[in-house]
Amino acid sequence: MRLADIVIPDTPAARGALEVATAYCSPALLNHSVRAYLWAAAHGAMNDIAFDAELLYVASMMHDIGLVKEFDSHTVPFEEAGGHVAWVFAAGAGWPVERRVRASEIVVRHMWDGVDPGWDPEGHLLELSTGLDISGRGAEDFPAGLRAEVLERYPRLGIGPEFAGCLADQAARKPDSLAGRFVRSGIAERIAANPLDR
Fold it and tell me: Is the pTM higher than 0.90?
């Protein structure tokens, strides 16, 4: 598996999602979102998990949009805020209601401890890929050459400290959220030890 083997969907919705992420995310958060899709798509291909590439790509671009100031919510966890943004984006893209709901679900589920690929392959792949990119979980399951190519094309740009800071902020304001639970369980230390930053 090489970077060139990963298909990036070229649809109006996919291009629009990248445009939104580029406009609102920091450079580090943008590259993280792109890598989240690449790791997810690679894992799906390597493990024969069929997935909807456009749906996964849009969700990947939107999965952390709830962390940026323009879409941060004082009432709901950032992944739920991001799910709402994904639903609205998908409506604007002309997707039917069922597909809008799927985009929202995938964004919300990326923070879960695990998602069954049998009933939500895109949610499973995004949960796995974001865990890899943020804390290095499962990095050894990806070929070293692919890891090197992805990190060279989409460098990390200090995503570890930036993301740890975002989670700490979310946890302080929303202590009952999953971000709060992650912070209390030592996510900052796991982020600091990410082998992708070595």
Answer: yes
